[in-house]
């Protein structure tokens, strides 16, 4: 039987219909069975007073996602008959984009009564707010309304000797003694003394300085003062008037119909060789040394040697610290934090600084910044250079979402070459670690810009470039253009270039390396199967069992409780990110069920039954089934719990 393009080839004995698939899950779902009896969880609950589950009562199924694939140089699609049938079976189009208005649970809704932090941490001094404190101070009153424990083993107490959440921990039975006192394993606690597990946290002192704008940016201000001011006669019309525009970027700007001002015929930038104003000269006390007046040359910066390494892409939402720990365990060499917005970092937002946190197991780690202007990006780079420990800083010039693009950031910088150059040069000036850049092929589908920008990036001071083989308009609807990536790799030399796009097996990785790139970055492939790093290094297909995958999810929940907390808020935050990851993990098709190997990243599976109940449950794209898996690991969901994945295309409801 010929399989339509865009549909994964599953062996005939495993194929089923939609009705049989859901009937099988409902038949096998027995609350009294041992399927939900997991060591670290409280069993699959999630039912109301009448014993009826309401999380997926209104679920309807969308048509299969139509994939635009490119095979042998020709665009493929589903047969006309199949397309017509899909259109008839559904009165609406496939949901795409982001669920921007998805419901979010307020942390206050998880618990009606919360205990005061001064009581939780057993502080000697009394609560600062006294009688006006909005939290409970009576432990017995709190324990009377506290949700039941989820298990008898607390990951924080077990690993570090102390749980900072005390009686509020959902596993408090492991470390709470008489009179609700928190028990401490002194010997284990001493082993971790002076050894930070997670680095790059935002201190209260720095946060206050940022909020009061009392942080000094000396290097950034010197660089920004060197930038040219608008040229005379530049009023009216489309002018690019800035001294830092080099020859290459001027050519790109001219092709877009912009008149370039401030660049000589030879293409020399007015910034090159420019001296800072006299009032910004270095002031010294005593004898002047080379260190006072000589800048760190590019050749003296720390080198970034990533040749042939496997790079886990910075993934918004799903690329959190617990997930990166999972990928490191499977063999990822390089990790990078989620995209952080530079303006939020400069304002001292705790949620944004949390994206920069680094686990001690991440030996090669970088952070990714997003911004649209040289002043904020340069200042943010200088701030991070002083405040955190990283091996490199990456600029996001590949983000396609409207929220970023319309403000001039992400992919928009590829067509704003003047600002792009100022950002790269400025950040490179203030950083002591290498600067890398992640770009796409361009903005429009058939108008490639990367080959023009990459030589300029080498000139501006970038240490490495990562190229995603798609444009902004393409998003993920078409195969990545590895032929174009190969062309750009030659232009980038001797600067290393990493390729990114459509890698889901070791065969895909081998083909990618044959294009001449220095290494590969893996994004969606790692979300669908994080063991891809092991497959590439061992050059094999891993037919991982459902029990092994469940153990993987257990490890993720343990890492999540360790990172986000073991109290109710931490449990529900772990659940949220687990569900986001499951929206990708369900796309994996076990190797033993495929007609041919390997699975391709843009192939969606038809309905099929796995080799056991758990394997079938893990392949479901129904939000309710993901919630069922989360309840196996983290206990019943709170009352009136709702969840929608970040991307509409990931599930139906």
Q: How is this structure best described in words?
A:
By secondary structure, the chain is of the alpha/beta class. The chain contains 25 helices and 14 strands. The strands form 4 sheets. An 8-stranded parallel sheet has the order 6-14-13-12-11-10-9-7. Strands 1-2 form a two-stranded antiparallel sheet. The longest helix has 19 residues, at 546-564. It is globular and about 70 Å long. Residues 31-94, 229-245, 247-282 and 649-653 have low confidence and may be disordered.
Name some characteristics of this structure.
single chain; two-stranded antiparallel sheet; 653 residues; disordered C terminus; alpha/beta; 34% helix
Distance between the termini: 31 Å
Q: Roughly what fraction of the amino acids lie in strands?
A: 5-15%
Low-confidence stretches: 31-94, 229-245, 247-282, 649-653
> Over all CA atoms, what is the radius of gyration?
27 Å
Main-sheet strand order equals 6-14-13-12-11-10-9-7
Biggest sheet overview: 8 strands, parallel
Count of individual helical segments: 25
Oligomer: single chain
Mean pLDDT: 81
Helicity, as a percent range? 25-40%
Shape: globular
Number of strands: 14
Coarse structural class: alpha/beta
Q: Secondary-structure map with pairings?
A:
Blueprint lengths: L17 H11 L40 E3 L2 E3 L3 H10 L27 H4 L18 H7 L9 H6 L25 H6 L6 E2 L4 H8 L6 H9 L12 E3 L5 H9 L3 E3 L28 H4 L16 E3 L8 H10 L4 E7 H5 L3 H4 L4 E2 L5 E6 L3 H14 L4 E6 L4 H4 L11 H14 L4 E6 L9 H11 L3 E5 L13 H11 L4 E4 L5 H8 L5 E4 L1 H5 L3 H7 L7 H19 L3 H18 L27 H6 L4 H12 L19
Parallel strand pairs: 4-5, 6-14, 7-9, 9-10, 10-11, 11-12, 12-13, 13-14
Antiparallel strand pairs: 1-2, 3-8
